[in-house]
Amino acid sequence: MRELVRGCAVLLLLLVAGLCAPPLAAQSLQAELLLTQDDLDGPPASAPVLARVDAGARGRVARVVLPQRVGSYWLRLTTDAAIAPGEDTLLVLEGAQGLGPVTFYPPAAEPRVVRESGQGGSQLLRRGWVLSLPSGWPAASVAYLRVNGMTTQPLRLRLASAGEIAHGQRTHARYAIAAFTVLMLMAVAMLGIYVAFRDLLYLSYAGYLTAAGIHALLLSGDAGEIWGLANLAAYGATGNWAMATLAVALQLVFTWRFLELDRLLPRGAIAVKVLFWAHLALLATLLFGGARVHGWYYLVGNALLICTVPVLLAVAVLAWQRGATYASYYLLGWTPLFAVAALAASNQLGLVNAPWAERALPLAAVIESAVLALALSQHAANRHRIAVLAQQTLGRDPLTGALNREALEQMLESWHQLGSLGARSYGVLQLDLDRFGEINERYGRAVGDAVLQQALVRIRAVLRPDDTIARMPGDGFAVVTNCPPEDCHHLARRVADSFALRPFRIDGHEIAVSVSIGMASSQRGESVPALLARTAQALRSARGVGRNTVSMDLPGRESALIGEARESASSAF
């Protein structure tokens, strides 16, 4: 036991000694930004130091913030420990893609121009510059870097081995490929839903997912190895920025339709459309300008993105406050992605130091797509449910073959679940045959049943293919139509006039039948029982006036008569 205690004490002393001992000497990279007035062809013999940055231990990053200027920047680099020739050590430079090629003056070696990876440079680093040291780095030697172009993004310099660079590259590539695969699978699913329902909502989201997935793959640098994307990757920054701008533009189209801004927030819809056309104009400038606009394109694009994010969040919050059913999904899915995208854009502009934000974009996009895919799947399921209810033979009235009241209420519940997600305003019409009891008493029950059957045929004759009719208890019918209130009024008027045009001919009898119609349009957040109650109230108002009268329920007010009583064929609509 004593020996065990003694051994533990020795280990503890060794651990404390190791923690308290000074660190071993390690290579430390220092970068000095030189103040030069003229665009020199070679390293300046002497120049004031504008900024000095020390990376610290090997592997750490020296972050150099560049001043706003047009022309070249000169960096003087030193290290406090010599690097032997042939040693596996490389100088890594990361910065904005708009910088283009850099001129490197390695210690004790000839200068050379190094293009960015993917455009003739080293494949160890897909987005940046890998600068080799052919003669090593002798003690007290100096290296120079000449960086062209105007940029707001800080330069990041570090020393690393080829193995470290390759490991980091492959990790990022696998991560980006996984994100690309998930986004493309969801895009295919959305495209399938679009084919089924022909709604631009699904198509715009499928396009956004495709553009976002390709952008993530282009960032990883592996797009050049994939068939079909190699040509796009060959365009370098042009192709990458084009996919990013296209993704934002399609996201704006999706936002406009997803939140039903035309109905809920007309001004918000205008703001989103203005942003859409601004991004589209920026994309057209890039496609026509190519490399000629690289010097300023990413500045304008990132600034526009930073302005877009708060507008979209504000619009989503307002839509949620006004009862948009699926706005909560939008906020849950898009808020993290918006935050990461804004940080990445701010990092590009040099406003914050968040180099990790760009690498986090694919993960944020996958999380967002999962949340929105859930919302869109619910929307598609409700639309499918409506289509099935309209076509199925179950739940139908045995006399007329129309849907019964229970099936109608299920359909209305489905419309209610659609909420603001791509569903236009819909209306419900309740029709009641005037004095139908007198027809049964005078002509018999069989004739009355025939009148109901012919009434159904006459109503269907003026409906659209996607309108739905159901038999209500007693001598009434109900129609569900997907249209704004003014179109519902016109439809109700056509139905009333179809009864006034000519009498019913049954078993040699000519029977004049009129109809009273009550109608109401759906309101945001309104339950199905409340909608049917408003429709029934409007029907009672129509009955109280007379034959072939249409009454519409106005929320917050008494039902308003919007049609005059018509009893003759000469007064047809």
Binned, the helix content reads 40-55%
Rg result: 36 Å
What is the terminal separation in angstroms?
107 Å
How many individual domains?
Answer: 3
Q: Structural class from helices and strands?
A: alpha+beta
Residue share in β-strands: 5-15%
What oligomeric assembly is this protein in? single chain
Instruction: Outline the low-pLDDT stretches.
Output: 10-25, 562-573
What topology, given as strand order, has the largest sheet? 2-1-4-9-6-7
**Name given to the CATH architecture of the largest domain:** Up-down Bundle
Summed up, the helix count is 15
Major sheet attributes: 6 strands, antiparallel
Mean pLDDT: 78
> What name does CATH use for the topology of the largest domain?
Rhopdopsin 7-helix transmembrane proteins
Gross morphology = rod-shaped
CATH class of the largest domain: Mainly Alpha
The total of beta strands comes to 18
Overview of this protein structure:
A 6-stranded antiparallel sheet has the order 2-1-4-9-6-7, with no helix packed on it. A hairpin with a 6-residue loop joins strand 6 and strand 7. The radius of gyration is 36 Å and the shape is rod-shaped. By secondary structure, the protein is α+β, with helices and mostly antiparallel strands. It folds into 3 domains: 29-39 and 46-160, Immunoglobulin-like (Sandwich), CATH 2.60.40; 166-378, Up-down Bundle (Rhopdopsin 7-helix transmembrane proteins), CATH 1.20.1070; 392-571, 2-Layer Sandwich (Alpha-Beta Plaits), CATH 3.30.70. Helices cover 50% and strands 15% of the residues.
